[in-house]
Amino acid sequence: MNVVVAVDGTSGSGKSSTCRAVAARLGLRYLDTGAQYRALTWWMLDRGVDVHDAAAVAERAGEPVLVSGTDPLAPTITVDGRDVSVEIRSDEVNAAVSPVSAVPEVRTRLVELQRELIGAGGIVVEGRDIGSVVWPQAELKVYLTADPAARAARRALENGGADVAATQESLLARDKIDSGRAVAPLTMADGAVHVDSTELTLDEVVDVVVGMVMERV
Ligand code: DC
Fold it and tell me: Is the CB of 167 under 6 A from ligand 1?
């Protein structure tokens, strides 16, 4: 199937689990663009770049070589050949990824990479600006949200029982920067379908999205 499904939404709304399951069920590839922003952020921290200095981040945004593996059952991300799947979920990266993602040169670089991957066809892509900026022509655009408390509880569980209140605070801080930034802020794209996952199980959300894809192809 040569369809592009764009899924945008807030941190912890269930985008990753939903997208991977939808892609696996439909035999599509899967791209986690958040992992790319995280990997670039990890590299900046590793090189000692001040992530709050936009000019410094911009200057080095072109240096690292990022490669995303798009198998929904085993997605991978490497920076200069090193697998950083675990490192990109650290508290340090969580705290630094929103300011790095707000730098225009970072976005230009990653959007180009994303368009190359998407262009090969048949993919479910998750992020913040996929339906609005990266691939507005997607056959299906979903805007996935959930109440902050539900999102924090899920993310804390994923992170091996982390503190729910602290997790919620960190999610809300990222939402605020992601929605308020000048370039490609998180927003519901034209033509997107809003799905609120607060009261739904993962399987139910997956059924809803798969159903919408099938209606469109
Ligand atoms: O989906 P995530 O929580 O892994 O994303 C991490 C950060 O990356 C998020 O705070 C904002 C940024 N991001 C972005 O700016 N644009 C995207 N398309 C995807 C993620």
Answer: no
